Request: fold
Amino acid sequence: MKIVACLKRVPTTETQPKIAADGKSIDPTGVQYMASFYDEIAVEQAIRIKEQHGGDVIILTVGPKDAQKELREGLAKGADSAVIAVDENWGQRDARSTAKVIAREVQRLGASLVLTGRVATDRDNASVGPMVATLLGWSCVTDVIELTLNGERGVAKRESDTGIETLEFSLPAVISCQKGLAEPRYAALKGIMAAKKKPIEEVPAGDEPNQAVVASLSLPPVRKEGRIVGEGAAAVKPLIEALRGEARVI
Amino acid sequence: MSKIAVWIEHEAGAPKRSALEALGAACAVSKDVLAIVAGAGAGEVAGKMGAHGATAAVAIEGGPKSPDALARDVAAACREAGAKAFLAASTSTGRDLAPRVAAHLDSNLFSDCTALEAAGDGLRVTRPWLAGKVIAKLDSKGPVLCATLRRNTFEPTTGGATAQVANRPASADFKAMLVDVAAKAGGKLDVSEAPIVVSGGRGMKGPEHFHLLEELAAAFGNAAVGASRAVVDSGWRPHGEQVGQTGKTVSPQLYIAVGISGAIQHLAGMKTAKVIVAINKDKDAPIFKIADYGIVGDAFEVLPALTQAVRELRAQG
Reply:
């Protein structure tokens, strides 16, 4: 079975973004990148499935050629190969056009299981996985915290607002991975050496146009600095008074 | 603005508050609002939608409990109605459904929007990027503007007329099917929907002390317990409670951060709360920079006193 794990290059969580002069994009100066947190869980889960059931793990990214760095990490952990659908302007790509590229590549690669992170921590869309499944006419379970595969079928538990839902599904399928599914491993030295020889294929992402058009970007309003109402348990009374009288939230 | 379709999530015959917020958001920008309700009891819920601003409703009853079948039916209802926009609340079900519906309609999805406004003959959305570090205003060139709406952000509408209810058969084909739901103990509120969130960080010193936060949440009655990433990574609390860039983004009326220093990744997830209270031993903790009210002090001393004060307040009614 061919398994595709999708991985996106995103700004690190420590990034304090600045708006570029055009007012419509983020200034890339000084921004550091990393693999999106949940996508690392997808890569880990793909490798575990391969270890348990056999198969071939391909990491797929829609992004710049420089994303090799993040892909090599995944290859060092045990993935077999990687594909970059090259788009140097990947940060501007909307969820729909990203899903179209991924669906096309998944079909070309002949995969029957696609793992994505629950959400990429740059645009916070949480959309590409279920969009890919819909475009391909495949099963999809989102926010998965437990996954069991059995031949052509699978069972997934997903975390909902109100509890844990269990779904049964048929393969081929797209699974979006939530924290708790699989703790990513560290790459061993042997794996890091082996990763240098593993293939990373580059294909053009294509020019499916975006539907989303940025009208403007801004930084959120700075919260005005509040005040210390007191110290220790004695401060509870003035706090309650402020919350009732001034803020009117309780 | 022309017709807007709104997905109405419901439970035991009652629409969810977040669904009525989405309906209210649609009514604020359009006079032609279609409520789409599915699942057992859909007809009953659909019949109530006129009172919340809908001008028409579709009830999709029966069918398998399948996310893919549901999306196909909802997309078909949008298409048949000629809807130019599709809205759903940003609940776990809404966030699962909306991208599938958008894909069926060959449209992009705008997730977790915090504002909707009329722009030309379309809609302009406002939504956070990078967990709220950047605010984006976006237009859509797609055939249907699909969006999920952040909870506790839009106001429901009341006092509408009666909405005409049409019935639509559910499709029988499915790929994935819901077979079991294990509800959270005691019907606890999720951090992303609760109007009050009390969160604990490393300053709580260990999982055995989180009962102090549970008790405060119980005293409020409408509060949920949240946690910082450090606490979740240490295994003290389940990841479903994590607030921050790699957890949940919340916008409650009141957010109380206890023993949380205020790392950027945490602040990103909660700084749109209406009022922020910080309780921390370290008077220089970054959390005080964004808190409206701060108490410098030991959590184990402040929390029981605060819980007691809230209980007294609630007892007074």
